[in-house]
Amino acid sequence: xxxxxxxxxxxxxxxxxxxxxxxxxxxxxxxxxxxxxxxxxxxxxxxxxxxxxxxxxxxxxxxxxxxxxxxxxxxxxxxxxxxxxxxxxxxxxxxxxxxxxxxxxxxxxxxxxxxxxxxxxxxxxxxxxxxxxxxxxxxxxxxxxxxxxxxxxxxxxxxxxxxxxxxxxxxxxxxxxxxxxxxxxxxxxxxxxxxxxxxxxxxxxxxxxxxxxxxxxxxxxxxxxxxxxxxxxxxxxxxxxxxxxxxxxxxxxxxxxxxxxxxxxxxxxxxxxxxxxxxxxxxxxxxxxxxxxxxxxxxxxxxxxxxxxxxxxxxxxxxxxxxxxxxxxxxxxxxxxxxxxxxxxxxxxxxxxxxxxxxxxxxxxxxx
Amino acid sequence: xxxxxxxxxxxxxxxxxxxxxxxxxxxxxxxxxxxxxxxxxxxxxxxxxxxxxxxxxxxxxxxxxxxxxxxxxxxxxxxxxxxxxxxxxxxxxxxxxxxxxxxxxxxxxxxxxxxxxxxxxxxxxxxxxxxxxxxxxxxxxxxxxxxxxxxxxxxxxxxxxxxxxxxxxxxxxxxxxxxxxxxxxxxxxxxxxxxxxxxxxxxxxxxxxxxxxxxxxxxxxxxxxxxxxxxxxxxxxxxxxxxxxxxxxxxxxxxxxxxxxxxxxxxxxxxxxxxxxxxxxxxx
Lengths: 368, 284
Prior knowledge:
The complex is a heterodimer of chains A (368) and B (284).
Chain A: H1 2-15, H2 18-37, E1 46-53, H3 57-65, E2 75-81, E3 84-92, E4 96-101, H4 104-114, E5 117-123, E6 130-135, H5 142-151, H6 156-164, H7 180-211, H8 213-218, H9 224-251, H10 257-280, H11 285-300, H12 302-307, H13 320-333, H14 337-365
Helix pairs in contact in A: 1-9, 2-7, 2-9, 7-9, 7-10, 7-11, 7-13, 9-10, 9-14, 10-13, 10-14, 13-14
Chain B: E1 2-9, E2 19-26, E3 31-35, H1 42-49, E4 57-62, E5 65-66, E6 78-81, H2 93-101, H3 111-117, H4 133-143, E7 151-155, H5 163-178, E8 182-187, H6 190-196, E9 199-204, E10 207-212, H7 214-221, E11 225-232, E12 235-242, H8 246-258, E13 261-266, H9 271-279
Parallel strand pairs in B: 3-8, 3-9, 6-7, 7-8
Antiparallel strand pairs in B: 1-2, 1-4, 4-5, 9-10, 11-12, 11-13
Helix pairs in contact in B: 3-4
């Protein structure tokens, strides 16, 4: 009953405060971005500028036919480069957008201006050989450069059929593939929910410290852990609501919601416990800012590994946000749900340890 | 109601003590004043008695509870009004009292009745953050009465209040005491201590220098003299006369009979003067 009263009071205070609406607003902004700014899937089409140095128009026409344009007809596109306008003929296939440019100089200018690749394809009138000259941006890996070098070592008639017939075996065939938009959601949920919760619970505690109300609570018959837990519950509830605001419109009813709620609650509990520990060691936001900032930056690092799977050092796996991100992904992919349950148990246990530590710290540091 | 024996407290847990060998007893129904300058150890002692600070050394019993093994139920029997008002600024005055009332396991007083008692009637719907310092202080004071405490800790209860409100607060303290409430009053204001306390303790540098009733202290340390001002050929003359010495008493009788006296005051010592006399320190 006392815990319920404390929870209701905290909820009332939160609803009259600034941070509650910051969290809600953030959720709405992220939802807007995901629904209206981020495409369902990012375009993976390569866009290049080509200059064809082919003296015989008939051969050039035959060469262009190999572009496999989707609608069979080129589309004129006008680019503004500096004060000049350069018109290209766009051929668009399922895999690439190829702009054929009238002069080599214009091709180079466009490649430079648009930060895209350019190439000159030349048919030597003497020996009848094809020559390829690539204009790169300078930041390409040596692997790509070597690939371009060997690409034309063999005849196209050998290379392309071989590439197309390359066998690709999908190992986890029962996985639900996420769209690019859905793939962003685990990171957004980790940052908007858990990490904001970590920061905001510290802010709430600092406000109470400033007002001195913790002391008033400490001389009441209600145990101090009720005070701390009521804050955690409010933060977890806020996180749950704001996270579901993002999840429901994007994922619909296709995911396991009880498991989602379990994971949101346990990660929220863990992040709040972390915030309580930090708040226990400082008196106000100004004092704690550097520590809060460093922890938040540290916890954001796993997002880099998530978006760049080739960078995934072992030490990243020490950070709890790593498991938050991948836990959410597993839920959305409906893959290893047992893994999510185990993670939830770990976050619950970790949160309990942090909460007990914070409680001990608050008991020791109540001053007169 | 309170028993303290050989209490020591060191914030650095070394031999620098904020409170040194403090001992006193407060029987039920007494108003006990704890007087001392800032940093003397008043708040530290009160913090230990109310469980805000851990007991390090000594024996402390509060309302029958051993402070070493503090139980939450003790707080059903005590009330605490802080020097620095500490209320939820985002809650209204009534919500503040309603919330804290729900934390007790004993019957509590009606928040509106308490607000009226401290002169905040009609302000219940206003958020505490919009209150003046004095109003917040009164709300903190009202909160300390929610559970009808048997033992009431008051830390500078009239600080920052205008004289009329301060008088109301003092009236409430007297009334509660008449109903049997024991009061532990921490202050550096000797006037309120003089007005309200049955006994006072002078604490300086963490040590109690003296415990006695204000009346006894005045008798022991005061002077038996009267200061008079009277008119003499159009001039105002001041004279201090002993009430013990026979010659001075005759002189005083003559002055009264001559009807020339403009003002007359007994020169009993104030608590502040006694404090300075006993401790060699001022109450600042």
